[in-house]
Amino acid sequence: MAYLEFILTYNRRSFTGFPCRTGTYYGTGTGGMCQFPPPDLPPVAKTPGMRLVALNAPQMHASLGCGMCFKVHASGKGSGANPIHGDFMVFVKDVCPECHAGSLDFAENGDGRWAVEIQAVQCPVGNTKIEYKFQGSHQYYLKLQTRNSRLPVTEVSVFQPHSKRWEHMKRSGDGFWLMGDGTWEKPIQTPIHVRLTAPNGENIEDHIPKIQNDVVIHGNGVQFSLDAHLPH
């Protein structure tokens, strides 16, 4: 519930000030808790001007913050050699365990601690669609990553074709969705019929054509709608 309340207050710029709300640097790298290693970053992460960050742990909510977008206003006030300043957008690819709520750690080489204000927004996905990636999956086990969504995915359900019901997946600590403890029909049939839920309550359904690990997979080309009541 705390996570949903956070997401649904997109239009409130709650996290301001210095030094508790800061922008820092942790260097460039291909890894990150959210497991978006280049060159397989989602299309939205490659938007011109988009910067990559680690989000503070309190707002990451385990790994539900992976793939979110934030608008940043930075005044350049602070200390160090490389000021953060201007208005721009960032994409969350990692977690900053030691950062306070409202703070960001930039995946760039730099120095200093700089005042920032952040606002969660709908990601500027344009005409691009939601993507998927499996890890360690097969006909009897699923570990699924949802990628490139306009709004965060807060729930994933998988349709069970014989019993005509939905089974919920559970969130992992590394940015994926796992088979829950329900009664799953096995072997898992493809295409996999999934239902994705956004924090504003929108549900969309898609079909994942195959189980293939460690590659980006496209479904039928679905995306959450632009919500006029939330910033973008």
TrEMBL record:
<dbReference type="InterPro" id="IPR036749">
    <property type="entry name" value="Expansin_CBD_sf"/>
</dbReference>
<protein>
    <recommendedName>
        <fullName>Expansin-like EG45 domain-containing protein</fullName>
    </recommendedName>
</protein>
<dbReference type="InterPro" id="IPR051477">
    <property type="entry name" value="Expansin_CellWall"/>
</dbReference>
<dbReference type="InterPro" id="IPR036908">
    <property type="entry name" value="RlpA-like_sf"/>
</dbReference>
<keyword id="KW-0732">Signal</keyword>
